[in-house]
Amino acid sequence: MDLQRRFFLRGRVATPVPKRVPRPPWAVLEADFIQRCTRCDACLSACPEGILVRGDAGFPEVTFAQRGCSECGACVQACAPQVLHRVPDTPPWSWRPLFSSACLAQRRVECRVCGEMCEHDAIRFKPVLGGVANPVLDANKCTGCGVCVAPCPTQAIQLQEISS
Predict the structure, then answer these.
(1) What is the pTM of this model?
(2) Nearest to 57 by CA among 3, 133, 101, 111
(3) What is the pLDDT of residues 41-63, one digit of tens each?
């Protein structure tokens, strides 16, 4: 896949740095993923949550706009080229939530929706004397499942990739 050519044909002169997107859970490293993924859509069809979508160039991506990942592994089982490989006791992603300034709790409005949705108990609320408790992420408990993203009333949660 020649990104220079693709951007030229789309009328773009300069090639921007490609933005990393979350791939399906337990995906191999990006370069290997791009080389080996056949874009067959088997993982998209297998996902009971419907969070896998066709992304740029037809490669599967994850969107947490409606819901998060249940980490069921159906996509892994459906992947014939084995670019998804479930490793026991390993989080499915190297992505973690980042709370923006739009967070209601950070604006001194009581809200704990993200913490209530987190099945891994990774989002706790740190009490503030005379104020509203703020969300704190326990990165060791967080799997990057994205369950906290969609229910946020102000869309204040974005996922960011962490370095391994």
Answers:
(1) 0.81
(2) 3
(3) 999 999 999 999 999 889 999 99
